[in-house]
Write a structure and sequence with these properties.
The structure is a homotetramer. By secondary structure, chain A is of the alpha/beta class. Helix content of chain A is about 35%, strand content about 30%. In chain A, helix 1 packs antiparallel against helix 2 and helix 3 (about 100-110) runs parallel beside helix 8. Chains A, B, C, D: Pathway: Purine metabolism; IMP biosynthesis via de novo pathway; formate from 10-formyl-5,6,7,8-tetrahydrofolate: step 1/1.
């Protein structure tokens, strides 16, 4: 339903009177018509957040550069962190995977069906391409970057080089079974999404489904979050759970968990691609 | 977290460029600082919807009358349906009940705990006060208005008189087992909420849990909607479901359903009291 | 966790005292040790249902034939409908699909990962193989059986021939966009599962997501059921829902619905393959 | 639907061949007809669990004493932990509460409506009766047992005395804000249920909703578990969650949490009263 010449503007700044008025006036003057917008004022932190989807009804006016130039003054005045993107422009996404392929498969399927509006610029794995079968990868550039305790830093250097060469906007860890170094995590902060196979903060670290089985919980879940140096502590984007019973073995939980993981990761990536998630310290604002 | 001098403005009008800019500029000029706002543009119907919660940081300025006066010009220019309310002002709510008392009890409990910011100006039932026990009603004005096929119109006249005398803003049908006449439904349109004990549009009419059991569905639900002349067809505000199994008898469904009904009705009433629901033809906009 | 020499016995019969005693005594005498069992007595219909998973701890004893022979007397005495299957034996499954491929893809993926213990003996579509890409189908026998109003009966004859030739145990309609004739539906009764893209009984028939959008419901769902002559009226096996909002266009509902559909269909097929679903008139018993 | 002369038998013992056969044969010989039964064999621990609901169709025969006597031999042979209860006999339940009254209210309401088939033999609080209002308590014996760091042991002695005097079968901690000593926890093991206001194992200890807000989770939950010496570590009976957003303040979480808490606690108590929960080490078997 979104007209092709629509844009999305996201803003985060210290709260102050007149932000919305100044922003929307600026858009209005440039022929912008608001299709969907949400604002949120975090009274705890004093931060203000805004997402606006608008269509430029009069083309005569403006390219996105004009819009950007026009908004610069407003942004500067409120010292905003902001981004303006044409909804026609697709993000460049790199997917990192290991042996489990359900999230990788799912992301690729949703990309092929157009559900995830992105360009997959690279798939990187520490396993060979055959792990996934021709089918899955197709003609997406595939890079095997094996890793061992000794070679970890070189391997990460390789990943970083690829990120730069491919102009990657977003890195998705699709059940990538390696922990990123603090260095790489820092470089990718705010543009690297992981899926953890538990309902965080419960069951951090390894084999969460076995931990869940051991503890006898009645629901299992998955959590998608931004990657930070602190393992499994990054800002949470999306979570979901499903009911289990005493009849479920750890293997059953792993099987049921795959469904939750791929659903939660796909939602988180979709949220990101749609500019609905904005960082708020250790947390996220996710506009519905 | 909401400052005591905060207001909520809701708007619905035909879409046009500049609505948000004009509205927020108007609020800004009167010292309004936006705490939370959402806009939505229904591209199908061309209707625009907006909800703004704002605090008047500078008291010097304005009473709500000043704010209203100030906004009149903007509202007129875009021919808006709009409402401006101080969040300190409580709605006057009339609850209609019959023999089942779980929704009545639940609403009263949530009111006593302050969860539902409203004044209960009257409880009307076609059953005597004893049906509910002293406990429940306490000192809330209670009116027994018995009804039979013959006396239906007089009884409804009595309800309408009470609505006017008490200055009722919202009528809640808390499992009230009588069908309102088209006339009364029309008079109360947009300010009368019902809870139907099924996941509409499935199982309309009588004994929905028995219908659900008969059909063998695996989930049962409840639906809260605005009352219209067309039975069970009003705009839906909130719905929820729960999983059931072949072991559940119709009696089990009724029991489990009570939980869903009271939860769904309470959410719908809360949404209304918080000015989050706006009519959009046969449907509703519910801002999160 | 299930030992390789485990069996599953399912029973349905008129209730009578001693069924469980006689059944379990018979298994015990033949060295069967019960791993998991559930019984249910439908007091409405007077039907009794039982599912027993047991391991034959002493191999010396018995082949499945011996077990069957041994149980015949018990089964005859209570005039049971019953089935005894080695959990090592895989069902032969035929998948029918049309243009939408998300359910087909999902079933194949779950089969490849071993999540669905079945043999896919054929994929039948009224669209050419290219619709799905090499990837999806791989070396699974694919049959294109185009259909038009005129050729419908011949096409169904072709499907039936394939069912017989391949020894198909279960036919899965994976968003197959054709309505089976009463004749074929009757022939496949109890072994043909469909996924309907709505939370039945709401929104039967065509374009349910558009109906749901039109009605303004707050949750959408999907329903997997046995196919019967009466369209969308077959015994329900599994259902699930997800929350939506006024922001969701019909296209969004279709997208979100794909997730629910594939999840619900996969669960229903898994339930069937695990002998957890037993017909009870217009309804099903689904043992957890 | 359960005939009035129905009984429920629960069993837990080391697995061995013939348990179900011996048990059901014994019931059959005494005229027992099985209405609902479930068995589970925990292959990890080698423990076997069984729940049988049966009706004694022939009254002539037996009292529950006869049934017990009759079953003793079977139970002894397999060294079972077992219980046999007439479904007509109600458990005696003591509720412990503190200032928050939503769970207390909810349990009492469900008891008054007959949803929870129990006798409330005492309400114990460290707050005065007025905290709850006449309404709530009615004529249920109420005992105020104030507590301070110094008087804790005496207060617990008072609780224990009451448990014995009243013949309490089950103690329910309905948001009781005191931690039981190891001694009392041990004495009440297996018959004391607590509601913790988080989705354990996440957010143990104090102010879990504030912890959840701090962490920025997208779902909050509640957990009902048996009380053990290890705080918040007891075997889990039931859990549930609800979706929240960045808009929710800690106060909103507390409000939304109350709904989850009372729902989860009520389900756990209902499960217990219906003999559906059996301890399995640190975990529980909960038959559906």
């Amino acid at each position: 339903m979104i007209p092709s010449h629509s844009f999305v503007l996201t803003i985060s700044c210290a709260d102050a009177p007149g932000i919305v008025a100044a922003t929307t006036a600026c858009l209005f003057e440039r022929g912008g018509n608001i299709l969907d917008a949400q604002q949120f004022n975090d009274l705890e932190t004093g931060r203000f957040f805004m997402r606006v989807v608008f269509a430029v009804v009069d083309h005569a006016g403006g390219s996105i550069q004009d819009l950007r130039r026009g908004f610069d003054a407003v942004a500067a005045h409120f010292s905003m962190h902001w981004s303006l993107r044409s909804q026609a422009d697709r993000r460049r996404v790199m997917i990192l995977a290991s042996r489990p392929d359900h999230c990788l498969n799912d992301l690729i399927y949703r990309w092929r069906t157009g559900e995830l509006p992105m360009d997959i610029c690279a798939i990187v794995s520490n396993y060979p391409r055959e792990t996934y079968g021709l089918a899955t990868i197709g003609d997406i550039p595939f890079h095997m970057l094996p890793v061992s305790r000794e070679t970890r830093m070189q391997q990460e250097a390789g990943i970083w080089r690829l990120v730069q060469e491919t102009g990657t906007d977003l890195v998705v860890l699709a059940r990538y079974m390696q922990i990123l170094s603090d260095g790489l995590a820092a470089k990718l902060f705010g543009r690297c999404i992981n899926i953890h196979h538990s309902f965080l903060p419960g069951f951090k670290g390894a084999r969460p489904y076995h931990q869940a089985h051991e503890r006898g919980v009645k629901l299992i879940g998955a959590t998608s979050h931004f990657v930070t140096a602190a393992l499994d502590e990054g800002p949470i984007i999306e979570q979901d759970v499903e009911r289990i019973s005493h009849r479920d073995t750890p293997e059953d939980l792993v099987r049921k968990g795959r469904d939750i993981e791929r659903r939660v990761l796909a939602r988180a990536v979709h949220t990101y691609l749609d500019d609905r998630v904005i960082l708020n310290g250790r947390k996220t604002i996710v506009f519905s």
